[in-house]
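User: Hello, beginner here. Can you help me understand these amino acid letters and fold codes? It all follows right here:
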Amino acid sequence: MSDQPKLAGIFTPNIVPLDANGDINEGETRRYVDWLIDHGVHGLYPNGSTGEFTRFTAEERIRIIEIIADQAAGRVPILAGAAEANTRETIRACERYHELGARAVAIVSPFYYKLGPEAVYAYFKEIADNSPIDVTLYNIPLFASPIDVPTIQRLAEDCERVVGIKDSSGDIPNMMRMIEAVRPIRPEFSFLTGWDPVLVPMIFVGADGGTNATSGVVPEITRKIYELATAGNYDDARSWQYRLLKLFDAMIYKSEFPEGFRAALQLRGINTGPGRQPQSEVLHQQLDILRDELQCLLADAGFTTAPAGGCSEFGIQTSGENDADQITQLVQGVIAELKKRGVA
């Protein structure tokens, strides 16, 4: 059993800022780390899907952790993505991230080749038996071999190094099945959701927090949701979850992932630079439209100003637009009253 604190709260799967040449922008990455910590995230999760880990080399992935661990300097725990193409390289990454002071590593189930439960168990068992750092399973069945409940239970029973799971399926009943199967035998085992739209209901059914991409853009909101939900303030937590849903849907469904998150983060003052994936003309057009909508959603939450053209086309009224409407109504009312009196 690990003597480390239980993984809990919101861990940010952060984007990696790049320079004009597409190389890691170390200075902006360090500034982004400070910004996230200052804005209340509980931990950092570099080399995740939002961080485009498959688009970096193995050496670059290590460098990303070196930069972020050095800048964080122990202020928040780091859950380092350590998914490599095979167990040998993954274990090597685990060793390096342990040296750098990461709290744990997150390892995605085998991807590209879809494997059955026995093969998935064997994969994680070999890593856990040889890792000097705690391991968090990463279940993302959309892109990798699924980790079913019996396999999670076996790994929890057989591997002390396996201390939690990040589940990005968004499947609430399955999260409940996992918790029911594992928590009685491993009370310290962590359950984190990686699907932002169900953060509140996942916490309500027993999850310990999340690794949520929106926390890289609006860390204030995800922390508020976590605090309200864990305190049992259901009504307020649900209200903030609905607001977060609008922003999440815009960022993930109206552009190629994670470009919507990159665009929103730029609106918050972080110079993310371009992504590694070349952008088509269609994507450029989508992003031009999306930026205005994201600016409206962020303005509605009080994080930026509304675009010059306003936000009514997106069904959003910012405080400035509301003030303008009220002034218009007031003027019209005054004119109407003057007409009645024969003055106008």
Observations:
- The longest strand covers residues 134-139.
